[in-house]
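writing this on my phone so excuse typos. first protein, seq and then structure
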Amino acid sequence: MKTTPTPQHRLAQFTSFVSQAWALTRPYFASDQKWQARALLAAIVVLNLALVYLAVLFNEWNKLFYDALQDKNESVFWAQLGRFSYLAVIFIVVAVYKFYLTQLLELRWRAWMTRHYLQRWLSNHAFYQLELMRFANPPLPTQAPGSPATPQRPPDNPDQRIQEDINQFTSYSISLTMGLLNAAVTLASFVGILWALSGGFAFTLGATEVNIPGFMVWMALLYCLAGSVITHYIGRPQIKLNFEQQRLEAEFRHHMVRVREYSEAIALDRGAAVEQTQLNGRFDRVLGNTLALIKAQKSLVWFTSFFGQAAVVFPFVVAAPRFFSGAIALGELMQISSAFGQVQGALSWFVDNYSSLAAWRATTDRLTSFEASFKALSPVNQAQAATDFDALEGTDLHLALPNGVVLLDGAQVRARAGERILLQGPSGSGKSSLFRTFADIWPYASGHVQCPAQAMFLPQRPYFPNGTLRQALAYPHDTAAFSEDDMRQALTQAQLPGLTNQLNQEAAWGQTLSGGEQQRLAVARVLLKKPRWVFADEATSALDEATEKIIYKQLLALVDQTQGTIISIAHKPTVAAFHQTQWVLEPQPEGAPARFVFKTLAAQPC
């Protein structure tokens, strides 16, 4: 059964929204750019006030100009036209610079917020943890619209939060805030003028003579109050629809990006038809929500259009009896109409901006939940020791999956320089999670870990940035740190001699190269950077046996040269020949955590 929110609940929601918007706004205006930001904001406020003052002057000009027309006073007519000319020039200059400075503040604010959130997203592996936590069980206690501490999944599509939502938030925040300020100052400036011009409204109620002073002011207030209430009840579905629209658009765009990233695999699987069906389904949901939003906006446009058109003639209807009785002249009637329009426009700010307010609310909610997700991140390997430790130690290790399944409990591991270790176990037993713990990126681990310095991790599916091969090989370091000869040598040792003359060629290497070539290019990175410790997670799974043998010989020669260690995860039995010690994760019955078993491998010829 659907319950109607109480006024107290609505007030609490509004207060929460204002607090959220302020929490997102305050950091920029308190940052290292605060003085430039505050100066720009102050200039925009001054220009807004100047525009209101010019509106007061134009209102006064209305009376003088139309009285001159009514009286056929040619000299006053031409004098007022001249006055209008310089007022118009001043108005144009102020309006242009108000627009320019407003856009400049929006741009600088967006730039600061974007860099701020990019830094937070990319720091401490937050981007990685957020993806993991989408599968956490139970969900994270993040902040959601209308529920400050409700368990929610981490925000979808952080790319959209950073790229689109920040842009909309800064734009709506400035435009709506300045619009509200302009409305408040306009109301304060014109309500006295309208009060003085409108006179009183007298009528007889029974035997009592009633006179209402400032009648036009009260009529404007009642007119706009009724319009605001009706607008809210007609337009409030747009808040939820705007929030949902941004989410659905982001999911549709994200799925298209995935099709592009996995284009080869999809083509090989003949999966284009399935992807088209899924994309069509996602787009249908976008269209469905868009249609619902359009219908909601149509209902609001029906009312606001009627409201706006009625406001044009409303002051003339109310003031017409006084004009036709001769109590006021044409100029005063036009001044009353102008003043009423300004007061009505100020009081109708909520009506005129409801759709923008709904979009702002949705954007603020999305950014607030994004902000809350960072606070919900788990600390990673709290006992991580100094990086100059020349051994790998893990004591009382507790590892789990995002869904809460325990992989290891109370495990002890130790590896010294010079060892060759092979880590094996059934799929899902926790091998890769253990490597991630050693790499200091796994948030679902506890215990004491000391990881050696100068370590590199080789995943089964490496990442290569789009750009030159030189950049892909040096990643994540600057290409200037390595000579061209060293790069060519590393490619040759990794069995990629055909790429030695393509260092300056740009390509999407993650898609251009085969799986085996990508793994060999990742090995070339290791051979180029010469770490002391190498952690390889199925790093040669796509290679044939002969090439794998050459690659492992190169890796062993490297760690021998650096007096380091190699620890490998591999299912292929041929890899065992390159290791001396075996760590085995043996699954236990009834879903209990795996047990560590240490074995010595028989010496085999390499």
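second protein below, same order as before
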Amino acid sequence: MTKNSDFPLRTTQQVREQLLAGREIALLDVREEDPHAQAHPLFAANFPVGRIELDAYTKLPRRDVPVVLLDGGEGLAAVAADRLRRLGYTDVSLLAGGVAGWHNGGGELFRDVNVPSKAFGELVEAERHTPSLAAQEVQALIDGGENIVILDARRYDEYRTMSIPGSISVPGAELALRVRELAPDPATRIIVNCAGRTRSIIGTQSLINAGVPNPVAALRNGTIGWTLARQRLEHGQSRSYPAVSEAARAAAARSARALADRTGVLRLASGQLPALFADTARTNYYFDIRSPEEFRHGRLAHFRSAPGGQLVQETEQFAPVRGARIVLADSDGVRANLTAHWLRQMNHEVYVVDGLRAGDFNLTTAWTAELPPQPVVEQVDAATLSKWLDEALDDTVVLDFQSGAGYQKRHIPGAWFALRSDLAAALHKLPAGARRYVLASGSGRLACHAAADLRALTDLAVLVLAGGTDAWAGAGLPLASGTTRLASPLIDRYRRPYEGTDNLAETMQAYLDWEFGLVAQLARDGTHGFRVYAA
């Protein structure tokens, strides 16, 4: 078993010095998302040990980037370090003492997820005095038939789940591009909402910074505030933004470019990209800021989809290497510049590729992540597994390594949910007397990596379902849903207090109270380097 002593240790002070100097560093919390959300350093990106082979090459593109791993004392950081070393990473160390060591060394600990972005949003509101309206005030405007438009800045799937009555889905960076079509009358009051606070604040301030002539305000506390006010939400809505005229695009592009220039965003011509692609001395992230639909229809080489609003909301998950270069592209001159002006204020080195048009995004093959070779494992096809389960159910135990949410949505009847990070403990919860284990995951790839871990823990035969649960479903075989058999706890995803429709009022209020305290936490932490510019 890998020991902590196999890898060098880095102290809280050493990591802080690296962050403050702006040098590249990937501070990674390798626990599952829920324990990560309970307490972690500000810039510790969640990087679960069980998924390292699937995530590393995309999120850590430079193999010699300094990586510092932490956990809560469970020993997962050493396991993760060994896996990264096997993948070719050469500068891997452990945070001395893990989460407790960070705290004992004087470091600030934060709750929740996407904390750098949420804390930045709170700082923007505090320094720019972003206007907002309470839920009751917005409801009164709706009831009075006032000249208003409500724009929902969340992802479209979130909007579909629940939305403010009459609102229109306009995710994040689309706001400044589309607003002139949605509110052509400068007297129309624009209200921007999200589920909680961050995207409402950033969306509202984006429109103000961009010089939109309309009065603009955030819905204070988003759908949480709306729910706490006991006001009705809509569900299953599909209202979305219209196409944008060339005149509106050009006007939005001029203001977005001015904002980007004012905040120190750097520029690239498309002809400079090949040299940057060849540069291995720095970590470079390439993000396409357009909508996911546009990305699916055509893309640039090396760029992956990161819609602007979500990139600002989840920056540390898209780009976990602090101090890296971030390169943004769009087809309109609006979305990338507007996104870049926020990332620059979050202390990122950010570039925008100038002059791109829709025709430049002409790669039609699907984007795929770079992955290490898949381990050679013994596999079984769906038809054979189905026969085994029908003929002698107790002989075969199926372990499902897909996400907890995916397992609850669909899984092979009788399959046990298991976390790769919890595999040794999970085995003790499985029925005795089986002859073999069959491992499944969505596509089967993660199950292949888990197979070697399981072989080290058991004398039973270990096989992988070829093509995973996707192949089982594709064969028309029956599926089950719900939390039917849990060999591991459902801790791979933290339950956001602003998602779904069944959150307790106390939980939602506690979340808002936490957000209100983030500016003070930023000041105590002192590593962020955020700078909010005047519009």
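The mean pLDDT is 96. thats all i got for now
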